[in-house]
Amino acid sequence: MLTKRIIPCLDIKNGRTVKGVNFVDLIDAGNPVELAKKYSETGADELVFLDISATEERRRTLINLVREVAETINIPFTVGGGINSVEDVELLLKNGADKVSINSSAVKNPDLINQLAQRFGSQCVVVAIDAKRIDGIWKVHLVGGKQATELNLFDWVVEVANRSAGEILFTSMENDGTKDGFANEALHTISKLVNIPIIASGGAGNQQDFADAFTIGNADAALAASVFHFGEIEIPELKQFLKKQNIEVRI
Questions:
Q1: Which end of the chain is more exposed for a tag (fewer CB within 10 A), N or C?
Q2: Can you spell out the DSSP letters for 156-181?
Q3: DSSP E strands, the chain
Q4: Which sign does the torsion angle of CA 61, 220, 5, 224 carry?
Q5: Residue 234 burial (10 A CB sphere; 0-12, 13-18, 19+)
Q6: How far apart are the first and last CA of the chain?
Q7: What is the enclosing helix (H) or strand (E) of 240?
Q8: Average pLDDT over residues 117-131
Q9: Taking residues 64-84, what's their average pLDDT?
Q10: CB hemisphere CA count around 31 (13 angstroms)
Q11: Residues 48-57, mean pLDDT to the nearest whole number
């Protein structure tokens, strides 16, 4: 049985780790390099680094900071934000990223998913999807959640998988930062539609929320930010908790 992964997420703005609620009201959460080092040393399975304002500001990801984080950790490292081309990905991989996460650029140019998978392998390509229910229908949002689209979450999930993405990082915008748990019903639906790994994001508040994402949502990995950044949940204790619930994790 494949082990379930625990993934801290560093949302980066102006070189600092930040965290908000429902994608707004951002507060400072610390030095990204120091946080990355801590997570690598305390049992995180992977680390995700999202330059959350790169797309909105129409610039590339913060390469120097990516390199500094990569030199500090020894776990798989996914980087996203402002990625629009094969050249952008080459630059990130040269500076220490193991995988890249694309979001707005994938919706605007779906063929980019195919191009990256062909060039670097599917295992390198994570498609991040931010979605929110509007009149009961899950709609994909772009530019850090600021721009609504008419794209249906579940239709997009299927297309992403068909275009050879290696993983899907699904964030429920209405759960994000609320600490009320992940969007497990939507996660479960996604897991039945595609056969690539699904990373749950948005809503972690306690250890049971992670267990529910794995057992009810059928997620392959669970990502969180504030509960880790502010010491509300420590990764070693979380993994022991999951192990006791017969959820396979790497200790």
A1: N
A2: HHHHHHHTT-SEEEEEETTTTTT-S-
A3: 5-13, 16-21, 24-30, 47-51, 77-80, 99-102, 125-134, 137-142, 147-152, 167-172, 198-201, 221-224
A4: positive
A5: middle
A6: 15
A7: helix 235-244
A8: 98
A9: 94
A10: 7
A11: 73
Question: How confident is the model over 8-19, as a mean pLDDT?
Answer: 81
How many residues does this entry show for the chain?
Answer: 251
Q: What is the DSSP letter of 106?
A: H
Q: What is the mean pLDDT of residues 30-37?
A: 89
- Burial pattern 29-44, b for ≥16 Cβ within 10 A else e, equals beebbebbebbbeebb
Q: How far apart are CA 191 and CA 6, in angstroms?
A: 18
Mean pLDDT of all residues in 210-232: 95
**Residue labelled with tokens 């709609």:** 139
Q: How many other CB atoms are found less than 10 A from the CB of residue 192? A: 10
- The answer on pLDDT for 29 being more than 80 is no
pLDDT in tens, 137-188: 999 999 777 889 999 999 999 999 999 999 999 999 999 888 999 999 999 9
Q: Which residues are catalytic?
A: 11, 130
Question: Side-chain half-sphere of 175: how many Cα atoms within 13 Å?
Answer: 25
From 99, 62, 66, 106, select the one nearest 84 (Cα to Cα). 106
